[in-house]
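Example (one chain per record):
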Amino acid sequence: MEQAEPRAKRARLAHDDRKQEIVQAVLAVCADQGIEHLSVSSVTQRAGCTRSLFYHYFPNKDAALAAALDHTIDLFIERLRTWNAGRVQGDIEGALESISRLLIDMVVNSPELPRSILNNGDAVLYTAFVHKVAERCARYLCETTVIEFGKRHEILIDHVYETFYVLISGLILYIRSHADVSVDVVKDIIASTLHIEGFTSKYPERHPER
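Predicted structure:
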């Protein structure tokens, strides 16, 4: 006989689902009406919930917006995980090209919420968003891809996390204002910043292990 799921676990799942519904409502309001129209009332109306339920999960609309931004960044990290799992071990040039394409796509075709922030001209909020993206992406890469690379090759940069943070945040802002940038340019910037251009066909003479 199948054992019933513990009541506490069912309650926790229901709690998570309700909270996620409110986050999705925040995203929907920003996408349809713009972030300037985000309010507790607009979110509760979209989510079909009461204000008291909203305040059970979030103290104010800014906290709900922060949760929606975190959800958006979660999607970015998931795409990074997919990229990392799918890249061919040892094919550094191929990895550089695929991560460059991914980064351009993530910025140019960014979700509605970041675009809504930009359209509203909220530079402070967008800067905070870029900071969080760069921070989490840099930490993920340092804890996975960089460690795997270091098992086979010498890492030629100091301050690895900081370098990745500056690289990612800088590229996001650059691509944001230069949407027509080519994959080759982004690839060259990444390779030269990380001192791995010698692993590419463009600069084989700079290979660190020659």
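Caption: The chain is about 70% helix and 0% strand.
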